[in-house]
Design goal:
5-stranded parallel β-sheet; binds phosphoric acid mono(formamide)ester; 4-stranded parallel β-sheet; 307 residues; Rossmann fold; binds norvaline; alpha/beta
Length: 307
Amino acid sequence: MSLKGRNFVDLADFERVELRQVLDTAHDLKRKQKRGEPHEFLKGKSLAMIFMKSSTRTRVSFEVGMTQLGGHALYLETSGTQLGRGETIGDTAQVLSRYCDAIMARVFAHEDITELARHATVPVINGLSDLLHPCQIMADLQTIEEHKGDLEGLKITYVGDSNNVSNSIMQGCTIMGMDVTIGSPKGYTPSDEMMKKANALGKRYGTTLEVVHDPSDAVKEADVIYTDTFFSMGQERTREKEDALMPFQVNKAILGKAQSDVIVMHCLPAHRDEELTSEVMDGPHSVVFDQAENRLHAQKAILTLVV
Ligand code: CP
Ligand code: NVA
């Protein structure tokens, strides 16, 4: 089975064996890098990276990843390209495909990434859209595997605002055999469309998906607690949303309801003492910086497989 030429836009497009291949490759590339073994599998290849919004981890990990693989990455900010002056996404996709071997993009509207993928003749990788964040979840699955061994049968609880990260958790974790609980207040739960898609995956892979409105109930016996910002990029900060989400803060009291060896995850950047306390983020259960590191290894795996 080969992933060559595939777009990496939506985890729901992949089978468990395919995501397994990405994870195994990610573990292998991490070992190689730690041992200093050469792994220049993309020598002479170029990755175009379009950023329509800010990034630290995604930009640096993709750029360093391409260098470690013997290739090159180009950082393209919208305002510095003709996209900023109205050249269409479709035309841009066709032009970049003539120079580069893959395109990674971070966009506001998810339709922009699907449009890019429709017109590009090289693989397109989603570096975050308003709907999904698939590369993040591959790094997260790698991290969970490092800390817990197997993924199958674990309970992951995402607490907070339902967003691009939780949508991709519902897909990726379900595909890999984990039971998913979303702990969100009413009004901030996943869309019907995302629930439908994840429920279909759950049926296929024999896992459960539930939405719970009480944060303590949601994290009961969780092996993994995950949270993210209350306000994603492009969203307006409101008092109403903050008030609704504050009871869902990941703190020591919440941690006490989960398994004693629970790990705490956050895609970062974190808003310390908002969605999670500094005490928990810097505490013994936190694996947030392992997640950040694994962006590098998981994305190198995606790149070597699709390019
Ligand atoms: N987690 C994540 O995607 O981080 P950046 O916004 O810094 O890329
Ligand atoms: N949900 C966050 C993730 C940032 C990596 C956002 O979209 O801003």
